[in-house]
Amino acid sequence: MSQTRKIRFGVIGCADIARKVSRAISLSPNASLYAIGSRSLEKAQTFAKTNGFPDGAKVYGSYEAVLDDENVDAVYVPLPTSLHVRWAVMAARKGKHVLLEKPVALNAVEFEEITEACESSGVQFMDGTMWIHHPRTASMFEFLSDAHRFGHLKSIHTCFTFAADPNFLENDIRVKPDLDALGSLGDAGWYCVRAILLAANYELPKTVQATREPVLNKAGVLLSCGASLYWEDGKVATLYCSFLSNLTMDITAVGTKGTLHVHDFIIPYDEKKASFYAASESSFDDLVTKWASEPNKHVIENNLPQEVLMVSEFSRLVAEIKFNNSKPEKKWPTISRKTQLIVDAVKASIDRGFEPVQIQE
């Protein structure tokens, strides 16, 4: 794709995650950093200077100015979750394609406002779940979908935790009820839910029940929580997410014929390669002193980091709409909505005294 055909991104907000995605946009072969907006012009100027924006990039002292720039094709929105509905809807109504940080909203009702605005304006929506775009994820899904090697999914266990420092626990937006009221459930639990959905081929569970004794801060924001998910056919899933435990990001998926293990599913140990372990028809030796065979390690190499692949795929879809009159890809908002519905159900179960909550599509 030529320079003139690259999708021009505007970034609204200078959150830490925006540094990583700005780098991804600059590395993407079909995207370019075109504009940055912050509530402070000085902050926007500093961000552009320190994050690889080209010399000619537009720097604005408001979010609105980015959305009003006719040359901006798409916006990346890394704002606090409580601001998503306002700015994502405004961006869509101004004809900008929307790459929105996760969690996408405080609840599914808010998210439907966003998707309605995107649909009525004919713009592409995608959330910022990067690991889904790694080629390892496609390989894992291929194994999970293989009736001969993996069989039918019976259970999946997911975990994402990290030990936040005292400053984070006191001051980060993810612990503030007016900015990111979902806390660890929205920030870390989102990834666990997406992994569960991937393993279940995006079939929603029937019932969700939160684990008792979640940890909340003095403002009532979740710092640590868990849940179990149940399907009508007997599948069971668990998730655990926390700001208070050592860095861990695991998936264990168990099928009738096979098992999948991955220990770095959100951010790979290595930016240029990632692995997972797959076992099929496992057994012991004759004396039951060891396994007859060990799980196979599958290593997948990738030239571009997963966040660049996310930006590139989003930009490809935007280009199809802009240059070829294609329709927006509905897969992405559908997956986001299902993820949000489960997050909502976990939160509702906690709020209702750990009652089982039925998922309503």
TrEMBL record:
<feature type="domain" description="Gfo/Idh/MocA-like oxidoreductase N-terminal">
    <location>
        <begin position="7"/>
        <end position="126"/>
    </location>
</feature>
<dbReference type="InterPro" id="IPR000683">
    <property type="entry name" value="Gfo/Idh/MocA-like_OxRdtase_N"/>
</dbReference>
<dbReference type="Pfam" id="PF01408">
    <property type="entry name" value="GFO_IDH_MocA"/>
</dbReference>
<dbReference type="GO" id="GO:0000166">
    <property type="term" value="F:nucleotide binding"/>
</dbReference>
<dbReference type="InterPro" id="IPR036291">
    <property type="entry name" value="NAD(P)-bd_dom_sf"/>
</dbReference>
<dbReference type="Pfam" id="PF22725">
    <property type="entry name" value="GFO_IDH_MocA_C3"/>
</dbReference>
<protein>
    <submittedName>
        <fullName>Uncharacterized oxidoreductase At4g09670-like</fullName>
    </submittedName>
</protein>
<dbReference type="InterPro" id="IPR055170">
    <property type="entry name" value="GFO_IDH_MocA-like_dom"/>
</dbReference>
<comment type="similarity">
    <text>Belongs to the Gfo/Idh/MocA family.</text>
</comment>
<feature type="domain" description="GFO/IDH/MocA-like oxidoreductase">
    <location>
        <begin position="146"/>
        <end position="260"/>
    </location>
</feature>
